[in-house]
């Protein structure tokens, strides 16, 4: 008891009495939750944007970042941003599909051949379509989509070279109908799971494989629990910078303008960070013991066509979304 009292008395005056703090209290203290480690460029650039927003609004908007699933897994955070319990969230389009089914139109298997097509589409008609669909459910999407990257397959037991090698492999996929359908069509046994559970599930061998972009293998240390990396580039995946419609509309217009401007600018820089990592991370992962190959994507695409994957998803997404995608990537399926 005495110890606790002493400790309490030792708290600096500025902490014990916030009203004497030099900095004025923020008018809006907003929470931003995400699923990635602090070292990932998503968090580095978001922190930079939050600093700039604080400075440009004279401290009125203070965005606090909760990385690494501190506020729960993606499903939890999606519920929280809908209710306004958190103010910002950066789900992958794959994950927000449970709420906005058309959101992952960018994530159709083997659709995007390269980054120049990705950014043309996401900064153009395809991104505009997704943004409008997101607004319909009472959320606001910042214009610029941030980069997750091209998703690559990893396994623990044996490398994958052809679709046959995927037969029966227990692979974790994000909680997303599109991801499940892709790997089912390829003959694997996909298990949807929150990202927060992936490391442990791989470590304990509950699952054998997963798929994520190279920067995530590195920053989330998945190289510790996976041996083989396959440069399949099977999905291009991005993070949508989402605000809760309820709390976003409470901000004065000039504050919203500053926040959106800073987040979009930092998003462009975050894309550049990922581009740099894409060219350097593989060597680092190899030095940590991973072994890479680059399977020919053609046979995978053929299996997907034969299984009716493209026809089925064209039907689900509808003509408008599908036409906008094909405008950038050419005819699919
Ligand atoms: O859950 C994943 O695999 C991740 C981190 O890439 C997403 O957010 C979809």
Observed structural traits:
alpha/beta, about 325 residues, single chain, binds (2S)-2-hydroxy-2-methyl-3-oxobutanoic acid, globular, five-stranded mixed beta sheet
Topology:
Layout: H1 2-9, H2 13-16, E1 28-33, H3 41-56, E2 61-66, H4 74-83, E3 88-89, H5 93-96, H6 115-122, H7 125-136, E4 139-141, E5 146-155, E6 170-173, H8 177-185, E7 189-192, H9 198-203, E8 209-212, H10 214-219, E9 228-239, E10 242-244, H11 245-248, H12 253-287, E11 291-293, H13 298-306, H14 309-317, H15 319-329
Parallel strand pairs: 1-2, 1-3, 6-7, 9-11
Antiparallel strand pairs: 3-10, 4-10, 5-8, 5-9
Helix pairs in contact: 3-12, 6-15
Bound molecules: (2S)-2-hydroxy-2-methyl-3-oxobutanoic acid.
(2S)-2-hydroxy-2-methyl-3-oxobutanoic acid binds next to helix 5.
Written overview of the protein:
The protein has 333 residues and is an alpha/beta fold. It contains 15 helices and eleven strands. The strands form three sheets. It has a five-stranded mixed beta sheet. The protein has a four-stranded mixed beta sheet with strand order 8-5-9-11. α3 packs antiparallel against α12 (253-287) and α6 crosses α15 (319-329). The termini are far apart.
**Helix coverage percent:** 40-55%
Oligomer: single chain
Distance between the termini: 71 Å
What would the principal axes of the Cα set say about the shape?
globular
Q: What is the number of helices?
A: 15
Q: In this structure, how is the largest beta sheet organized?
A: 5 strands, mixed
Mean pLDDT value: 94
How many E-type strands?
Answer: 11
Q: How large a portion of the residues is in β-strands, by DSSP E?
A: 15-25%
- Determine the structural class based on helices, strands and strand pairing: alpha/beta
Unreliable stretches:
1-14
**Helix-strand sequence:** HHEHEHEHHHEEEHEHEHEEHHEHHH
Query: Strand arrangement, largest sheet?
Result: 2-1-3-10-4
Q: How large, in whole angstroms, is the Cα Rg?
A: 21 Å
Ligands, deduplicated: (2S)-2-hydroxy-2-methyl-3-oxobutanoic acid
